[in-house]
Design brief:
By secondary structure, the protein is α+β, with helices and mostly antiparallel strands. The protein is built from 4 helices and 3 strands. The chain has a 3-stranded antiparallel β-sheet. The longest helix has 10 residues.
C-alpha cells in the first residue's frame, strides 16, 4: 500500500460525523470487529481504502415500498 492514506481513530470518528466514537473504535479493535486497521508501535491507523471497502460492505440498499409504487401508479 505505498500510496494509501491512513487515518487516526480521531479522524475516523470525524469521517463518520461522530456516529462512531473513538471508544467504539477501541472496543471494536479489542473484539476484532469493525474496519481493518494497522498498528505500528502504539499508533493505530486505518487505511482509507479499507474504510471505503468497509463502507461498501455495510451499505444498506433500500427499494421503493409496494405501497408507494401503487400510489404512484394510481396517479398515472
Amino acid at each position: 500500500m505505498p500510496d494509501s492514506k491512513f487515518l487516526t481513530p480521531e479522524e475516523v470518528a470525524d469521517r463518520y460525523r461522530g456516529g462512531i466514537s473513538i471508544g467504539t473504535l477501541r472496543n471494536w479493535r479489542a473484539m476484532r470487529i469493525g474496519p481493518s486497521f494497522v498498528k505500528v508501535g502504539k499508533a493505530v491507523l486505518y487505511p482509507v481504502d479499507e474504510l471505503d471497502a468497509w463502507d461498501r460492505k455495510n451499505r444498506v440498499q433500500c427499494g421503493a415500498s409496494t405501497r408507494l409504487t401503487l400510489q404512484t401508479g394510481d396517479r398515472a
